[in-house]
Write a structure and sequence with these properties.
about 180 residues; single chain; 8 strands; 5-stranded antiparallel β-sheet; 3-stranded mixed β-sheet; alpha+beta
């Protein structure tokens, strides 16, 4: 049975990271910015039925929920924990094959993702968020923050600069990073 084992604060004051007792995804991340995006995902769709939820992000063994400014966490936590206890995890849509994306990626994009996988994504996951590379145009890397990082001012400014510096140093000095 799926259950919440811990709750962690994130740098985003409107997002909490709920640690689960079991993995719900092995390698994908899933981000939903509203109820409409979550229509075909029973887990996210059910979470959005709780009053005050504005985004849902999940991966591995955690779910990050962002709430609106008017709703208190007291109104969300108990309904969320009850929903998770009753949720049948077999309803979570199957993960896509990750290999199909890597086969078509260029060498530069592979190097970028390798550095992000090793040095950046674990730190972001620790704060209840994630990072997706949207595209690469020349030496301009377009990224999208997920979960708690999606609307966090720190992610949009300081982290973006740090990621660019890391990629310039470890992959190619001409790389630029921008949030999409």
């Amino acid at each position: 049975m799926l259950s919440v084992t811990d709750v962690e604060l994130t740098p985003n004051p409107h997002a909490l990271k709920f640690i689960l007792n079991e993995k719900i995804l092995n390698f994908e991340t899933r981000q939903f910015h509203n109820k409409q995006e979550a229509e075909n995902d029973p887990l996210a769709n059910g979470i959005f039925k709780i009053e005050g939820i504005v985004s849902v992000f999940y991966m591995d063994k955690f779910i990050t929920i962002e709430k609106d400014k008017q709703t208190s966490w007291v109104q969300i936590q108990k309904p969320f924990i009850n929903f998770i206890k009753m949720f049948d995890r077999s309803l979570i849509p199957s993960e896509k094959d990750v290999q199909s994306n890597d086969e078509n990626a260029g060498e530069l994009l592979k190097q970028i993702n390798l550095i992000l996988d090793e040095r950046v994504r674990p730190a972001l996951a620790g704060d209840g968020g994630g990072l997706q590379v949207i595209g690469l145009e020349g030496f301009k890397v377009k990224i999208h923050y997920q979960g708690a990082c999606g609307s966090c001012p720190t992610a949009i400014s300081g982290t973006l600069t740090a990621i660019e510096g890391l990629l310039k140093r470890d992959v190619h000095p001409a790389l630029e990073v921008e949030a999409a």
